[in-house]
Amino acid sequence: MRLLAASLLTLALASSTAWGQQPELKTVDIGVIQDSDISVVQKILFPKAKRTELGVHLGWMPFDAFTTTPMGALTFGSHMSESLGWEIGLGGGYGLKNGTMRKLEGPAYAVAPDAYRYLGSAWGGIQWAPIYAKMNWLGRKVVHHDVYGTATAGATIEQAILPDNAMAVAPTVGLGVGMRFFLSDKATLRVQLKDDILAQFRSKTADSQGLFIKQNASITAGITLLGKRK
Amino acid sequence: MSTDAHGRTAQARLALLFALPMLAGCNKYELFALAGYEQASFQNDADVIFVIDNSPSMEEEASALGLNFQLFIQALADPTAGGVVTETLSDAVDNYVSYTTVRGSVLDYQLGITTTTVDSSRGTATEMDPGEAGTLIGPVISRGTAEVVPDFLGQLLCETTNWNQTNLPDEDDAFKCGQEAIPAFISEEYLDCLCGEGAWETNQGGGTEQPLEAALLAMCRAVENPPDVCFHSYASSDATDSEGRNIGTFEDNHIGMNAGLIREGATTVIAIVTDEGDNSSQYLSNGDDDPSPYLDAFAQFDQKVRLAAIGPRLDTEGLQATACASGSTERDTVPYWSVKRLHTAALSTGGFYADITQGGDTDCTVSDFSVHLDNLGSLLVNLVNAFELRSVPDPSTIRVFVDSEEVAEAVRVDDGEGDALYDNGWTYEPAQNAVVFWGTAVPDYNADVQIYYRPLDGQPRVLPF
C-alpha cells in the first residue's frame, strides 16, 4: 500500500514539472508572397447574387444645347452573381426648350433649331459591378455600396420641337456608370450617369442629311428593391 | 506595364467615360430661320406714290388712269372705312368679320402723286412747282378721307396731266356737272367741272423723264431723317426758290416737304406710269440698264419698297422697247436700257411691269388700265397675304404653320391662259422673297403665322454659341 502511494506521488511531481515548461516554437516556410497571391477576403453584408432588382428612377438630361429634359424610368433586373447582372428598362420624359433655344427663336435671331425632344425609350443590357466597398460617413455610419458599369441597347422615341412635331424612333446604345448604396438588405439608392447614343432620322432635312447621331446623357437617382435570394 | 502606367490608363478611361455625356452639348441640329408674324400686327399700311409722266404724250394714258381709278379704289374695299383699329373686343370681332370677307379692307393706304419731272426749269423756273423733283402735286390722300376718288382725280387730271386741248372733246352730252359717276371719256366740260373753269389748262411738264429719281426724291422729302443718299444734286440749277431752298440740290431745308407721305413701318409702293423709260442720270449713266443704285438707295429707308411700272412695251428677246406718241398710230422706239431699268426694278422689288400699250406691233392703243389698276390693287392687298422672309430660303425646306397647324403648299392650277392660279395653300415667290397665301389658306385676323426655312446664305446674324 505504501508502495502504491509513493508511486502516485512520484508521477504527480513529474507531471507538474512538464506543465511548467515553455512550448517549443516551430516555423513553416511558405516561400515569397506575390501580389497575385493576395485576394481580398471580405464579408459582403448585402449580397446581390441570385436576387432580382426592381427600381423606380427620376432624372434629368441637362447636357443638350437646346433642350432640358426631366425624365423617369422603371427598371427590372437580375443578378447572376455579385458582379454580373442584366437589366431591362422603360423610360419616359418630355424635352423642354431651354433658354438658349428660346433666345434663338426670339426676334433678335429668329432661328429655330430642328431639335428633337425626348419622349421615351426602352432598353436592355448588362451590368458589371466589380467594386463592393464600405465608406465611413462622418465617422458615424458605414455605408455599403457598389460601383457598376452598364451597357445597353434599345430604342428611343423623340419628337421634333418645331411645329411639324415629326416623330423619330432611333436605335440606341448606351454606356453608363453608377453606384448602388445599400439602404438595407432589401433596398438600395442608385445613382447613375448614362449616355445614350441614338441614330436618329430627321424627316425635314432628309434631302440634305437625314441621319444624325445624337446623345442623350442623363443623370438619374432611384430606389430599387432587391428580391429574395433564389 | 508598370503600376504607374496602369494608373494613368485607368484615369484616362475614367475621364473619357465622364467626358462622353458632355459631348451631348455638341448634338448637331439643322438651324431653320424662323419668320413669325401675328396677322393682326402684321403691317397693313401701304403708302402709294404715283409717279406720273406729265409729258404731253401722256394725256391718253392719264385719261385712262383717271377713268379707271375708281376700280382700283373698289379693289381696296370701302374707301371711307379708314384703317383698322383694334381697341376693344368689338373692334376685334368687327375686324375679323371684315377681314375674312374682304381682305383688302384691312389695308390702310395713303396716296400721293408726283411726276417724272425732276428738273424744275419747266413752269416757274425758280420754284419747285408741285409735282416737280419729287414734290407732291397735292396733299396726301388717306383712306379715311371721304373723297378719295375725287381728290385723286382732281390731282391727276387737274394738276398733273399736260392736256392738249386740240385732242379733247369740248362737251360730253352724257355728263352733267355734279354727278358722282365718272364719265365715259374725259372732255373739257368734265375737266371744267372737276377742276374749275380752265384750271386744268396750265399744267406743264415733260422734258427728261426720271421716275426713279423722282421716286427717290419723294421719299427723301417725306422722312424726318433722310439717308445720306438723298443729299445730292439732282438738277443743274443752283437757284433758290422763294423759301430759300436750292431747287437743284437736296439739302436739309428740303426735309419734310412731303411730310405724312411715308408712315413708319408701312410698305411704300411706287407706281410709275410713263410712256418713256427712266433717264435718271444722278446715279446712273445713259446706257445703264441696271437700276441697282436706286434699289440700294430705296433700301436705305426703313421701309419695304415695291415698285410697279406701267411703261413701254419691252421685248427682252429682241432687246427693243416701243411706245406710242399721243395721237400717233405708229410705234416709236424707246431706248431699251431705259425701259429695262424700270422692268428690272419692278421685278426686283416684288412688283410688276405692265405694257402701257396693247395690240400688235403695228397698233398704238392705250392698254386697259382697269387691268393695271386691278393688278396694283392686288399687289397692295397681297401685302397682307405675302409674308416676306429675311433670308433667301431653300424652297424645299419651307414649312408654314398657321396657329400651329401646318399649311400645305398650294398647287398651281392651269387656267388655260398661262396665268398663275393656285388652290388653297402657300407658294414661295422668289421675286418678293416672300411666302404668299392663297384661297382659304390666307391667315385669319389675329392668326399666328410661323414660317420655317433653311436659308441658302446662312444665318443673317452670328449666333450666340
Output the keywords.
heterodimer; A: mainly beta; B: 465 residues; alpha+beta; Rossmann fold; 6-stranded mixed β-sheet
SSE series of chain A = HEEEEHEEEEEE
Shape descriptor of chain A reads elongated
Strand content bin of chain B: 15-25%
Q: Residue-averaged pLDDT of chain B, rounded?
A: 79
Number of strands of chain A: 10
N-to-C series of helices and strands of chain B: HEEHHEEHHHEHEEEEHEEEHEEEEEEEE
Cα separation of the termini of chain B: 43 Å
Verbal overview:
The complex is a heterodimer of chains A (230) and B (465). Chain A is mainly beta. In chain A, 11% of the residues lie in helices and 56% in strands. Chain A has two helices and ten strands. In chain A, strand 1 and strand 2 form a beta hairpin. Chain B has a six-stranded mixed beta sheet with strand order 4-3-2-5-6-10, with helices on both faces. With 465 residues, chain B is α+β, with helices and mostly antiparallel strands. In chain B, helix 2 runs antiparallel to helix 4 and helix 2 crosses helix 9. Chain B has two domains: 100 residues, no CATH class; 297 residues, Rossmann fold, CATH 3.40.50. Chain B is built from nine helices and 20 strands. At the A-B interface, helix 2, strand 5 and strand 10 of A face strand 1 of B. Strand 5 of chain A pairs antiparallel with strand 1 of chain B.
